[in-house]
Amino acid sequence: MSAPVLNPARDAGAALRQVRAARRAGRTRHVRVAAVLAAAVTAAFFVNILLGSYTVTIPDFLRILGGEQIPGATYIVMEGKLPRAVTGLMVGAAFGIAGTLFQTLLRNPLASPDIIGISYGASAAAVTALVFFGASGSTVSLAALLGALAVALAIYLLSRRGGAGGYRMILIGVGFAAVLQAVVSFLLTRTDVRTASEALVWLSGSLNAATWERAGLLAVALAVLVPAAGALSGRLRALELGNDTAAGLGVPVEPVRLGLVMTAVALAAVATAAAGPVIFVAFLSGPIAARLRGGAASLPAAALTGALIVLASEFAAANLLPATSLPVGVVTGALGAPFLLWLLMRTNKSGRG
Known about the structure:
ABC transporter involved in vitamin B12 uptake, BtuC, transport, transmembrane, ABC_transptr_permease_BtuC, Ferric enterobactin transport system permease protein FepG
């Protein structure tokens, strides 16, 4: 029996065809996942507006959008349901992108704003403004924004000596979170019941106070931050290979890292300022998007996943219990806590904990 004749050119061509087929299959899957997520977000958006304790028909909704005044319905839709849905959509997208940037940059699924202390910085600043200065509305949001940025900058500077990455930043952030949580608890014990109740609602993460003014400010911020995240994300893949490899590819490691960190922080900060610390959305969005895509998460997929989580949780929070409207953060917390425990157990079993 004669030995098979080797043909290097034929073998190389077959391997190249297999690689191209795999790439086409991957792109097809990514497009399908994006389409399904976009359809699900659209459906959740309109479910929040049309259904619930007060239902609105599609013809009436279109008439309201056209400017027609329908007694009762126009106010409920235009001043209640629609700004909440729009704000929830943008808040979820911002948290999704922020969490994915952190998790990819630090190469750790635990690296999200609500785990490493940034959301607690916003919370401490907001509660301080409520308790000591009697602030409300936009002033509380501004305090939360400044608090998140200040804590993020402190975490970055303290961890910079170790390269501002990996477990060093996470551990420093967890330390900040513990201290700031204690500060929030102390402040709540030093104020009256009414202020404490208002602060607790904000701390849970809620869309109840959503207005067109807040939605407009959030939209302006995202119009700047989302393109910035997209522009920097191309360098993110190089940083995933390690600092030395990225530097060898011509990437200015520290400036790019600082830009990514501050963009992610700003996204988390503006989302927190708009709706409070809606916990676990940033933590969940990236890993879920990655599993759906069968690989690394992308920023658009993470944004859509975050928006879907917030919109679905908002509808459940508003309609889960009769005559009771829960803060959206209560539902996202119930979803995120089991996922965090599962992730920790899985990480320890694989020897990476």
